[in-house]
Automatic annotation (TrEMBL):
Origin species: Streptosporangium sandarakinum
Matching CDD domains: LuxR_C_like (cd06170)
Alphabetical GO biological process terms: regulation of DNA-templated transcription
Protein name (Swiss-Prot/TrEMBL): DNA-binding CsgD family transcriptional regulator/tetratricopeptide (TPR) repeat protein
InterPro entries, sorted: AAA_16, P-loop_NTPase, Sig_transdc_resp-reg_C-effctor, TPR-like_helical_dom_sf, Tscrpt_reg_LuxR_C, WH-like_DNA-bd_sf
Source domain of life: Bacteria
PANTHER family according to UniProt: TESTICULAR SOLUBLE ADENYLYL CYCLASE (PTHR16305), TRANSCRIPTIONAL ACTIVATOR DOMAIN (PTHR16305:SF35)
Coiled-coil segments on the chain, per record: none
Gene3D superfamilies hit by this protein: P-loop containing nucleotide triphosphate hydrolases, Tetratricopeptide repeat domain, Winged helix-like DNA-binding domain superfamily/Winged helix DNA-binding domain
UniProtKB keywords: ATP-binding, DNA-binding, Nucleotide-binding
Sequence ranges assigned to domain HTH luxR-type in this UniProt record: 876-937
GO MF annotation terms: adenylate cyclase activity; ATP binding; DNA binding
Amino acid sequence: MNNLASPVLVGRTSELRVLIEAMARPPAVVLVEGEAGIGKTRLVHAALDRLVSGDRPVLLGYCHQIREPFPYGPVVEALREVAGRLPAAEVLNPVTGVLRDYLPELSHALPPPPPPLNDPRAERHRLFRAMRALLAAVGPALLVIEDLHWADDGTRDLLRFLADQPPEGLTVVATYRREDLNTPGLPLGRAYRRPPGTTSLVIPLRPLDAPEVNSLACALLDRSALPPAFVARLHEHTAGIPFVVEEVVRSLPDAEGPEALDRAGVPLLLREAMAEQMAGLPAAAVSAAQAAAVLRLPVDERLIAAVSGAPSGLGQALRAGVLREHPGGRYGFRHALAQQAVYDAIPGPDRRLAHERAMAALAAVTPPPLVQLAFHSRQAGDIGAWLRHGRAAADRAAALGDTALAVEVLDGMLADPDLPAPERGPLSLALSRLAATGLSYQRVVRLLRRLLRDDFLAREVRGEARLNLGLMLSNQAGDIPAGRPEVLAAVAELHDRPTLAARGWASLALPEWGTESLATHAEWMARAEALVAITDDPELAAAVLANRASFEMSIGSRDAFAIAATLPVSDPSVAVRRQVARGYCNLHDSATTLGHYTAAEEFGRQGRRLAAETGVLFPAYTVDVATVRRRWLTGRWEGLRDQAIALVELATEAPLIAVDAWLVLGLLALATGEWEEARKCLYSAGMDAPDARFLPIAVAAAGGLVELHLARGALKDAVTEAVQAAARMRRKGVWAWGAGLIPSAVTALAQAGRVQEGAELVTEFADGITGRLAPAAHAALDHARGALAADRRPDEAADFFARAREAYAALPQPYTAARVGESEARARLALGDRSAAAALAETAERFGELGATHDAARCRRALRDLGVESPLPRGRKGNAGALSQREKEVARLVALGRTNREIADVLFLSTRTVETHVATVLRKLGLRSRTEVAPPV
């Protein structure tokens, strides 16, 4: 059974280290314990591969479940490997002669056989001594016995004899399954007492956790990464057992979605293993196992007895290891594939009857488990009961706020080919209504597109289906070019359904999406509110009110906070509160953009709470990504990059909604001089298609690209980007979003000598934010005015920069405050104010504290040009081998693959200085090549 081992060793670092250390300190006895497929053999062989053995023989023996009579067979099999390693026969202990009959291939190298003793017990003892003497003669040696749980009594006694009195150079390693031992917990048949001077330990192997399953699957598929949803399902599906993971992964088609695991079925080897295990069970145990397979979930003893009809079978199945006890007095299989293997082997008529018994037993439970009842009624062929229970299960889940479960139930029903045609349209609509609030939407989009294309839906429901399709494409997918036309077509189809038409107009009214002007969005909002006025639908009223509040907040209206305060946050209806949750999450995003950080935090808190209460995933995710942006803006950068990456990975199915996280990753890279990384992330934040992306983030990303071009000396590219981004803002008309763009754009225009154009942009910006509650934009206005005056009127520039610095600090935006503080110090230095050097030094310190190493280096370079020393923060004393702050910065850039010239540009150093730092880094880290440098932590 050693073929159960995976060819890739994952997640066994500590166990491998312990095993190798024990093997290297004979005499030793090591027992490796774990269930089938857990990786016992792979661990042992990995240790053998890593052990420097020299002439040390490795003797392998295997115990087999089905064997022919052959006393001590596994050890005898292992001893055959000593051929060629024995000393001369006259040197060997004479007792080894008794092994001639057991090892005929070694008879020429063994002493003559001693005379018989005519006492079976004495003969056995002499045989054991002979084997011990032979092992001592070829020592030091490694004796490995696989699958000790299948060993015969004689082999187990022999191994216990060797373990009790091991030769000086012998290491015994045995693998076994605890659940299959003849005597539970006693792999050697009785308690083992470690002899003095012998290394002795048991190494239990646990299942892999989700990250380890990910590593194993990536290795098997030769991939660097896999979708988190796929990995989570794979871990759940296989219980983290390496062999099962391997078999499942190898049996998969090319697809890597979670649904591919459900289609893959049970691997052949696992089916055979379960069939073999079931074949040895008593009839009652088989019935219990089959009942557990039909019930699918771990359940209590009463349910298994009711479905199996064999009350005594559960205990037998547990003792055989087919079933296991789960927490809470429930019983089931070790993993889903074992359950599926047993289920598939039940004859069809027997399965149907078992499902009928399950329906009867579960119907008596209070409250009835509707999802399970729907499943069992479908498997029993009762279509009417299936539809009844399925619809009730989805309704209950939605009412309780478990939207994900409701979507899963309805999606499963729609995927069933036996679903009656009249049910398809209503269920599709119910599914689309729920999916519009979740993160998982792609299957629903495909379904709705097919239904609309093939005309499966009746006329009266087509408009609603199209509306939901458009909302999913626009929101979850972020695909405005595809979603907006669907919504516009839907509102035309919904002329006789004002309630739904109002929802469509309200969604179109949000100005963050699309290329329409603010005036057009305001007109659409007015249409939605007019339709709400003639309907009596509290959920619709809440939805439109939430969008009105979001609309007003996004443009910095003075009425925004008052309107937000009227949202029915305590309404008893889950549907109403779900709309309020969406509204609060949108308010959080807009308040973050405008610079209302305290209010944004409160909106986010309320939005998360309501989202959790009402089961909406998508709005809560938008809070998470906007919170990352708020952390960037307010200077809380510790661990920020890792958090942003995690959110990007979470949105694998809807990557376009992770734009806030991409923006933050791009701006962090910009602050540390990682130019190419910054460019890639800013494009992912919306600059790949800015007209089709979330515009406030695209505007900020455009400002980042302008800064990137300026930092790299590409002034022409900076101006082009600035002009294009300003044109998009001008077309939309929401200047309150310009805080991250306008100062950079004006800087680029001024440096290019296009001062008049820059002045016109500043005027437009000032007019656009007049009367708006947009503190970040107002701070940016003084910032832009200072940038416009910097080269011509440094005295005015210094004053504008000072006001901007104070405004940014009050928000707070410490990084932007430091940036404008640097500009203020440079303006004052241009006026001959040498005292500004101290402010520049303080600014360099603030940049360093944040982690903006490129900005800090730029300030220190300016100070060096002034002849002012600005030492870097020193490392801890007493660690001569530790890297200094500058060396850490150099090491990070080396690890990113930067050349010395590129590092010099980022850190404002000479190439020769960089060469010296690189050499010091390699020496301190004990490395021979810069390719071996890893980013310092």
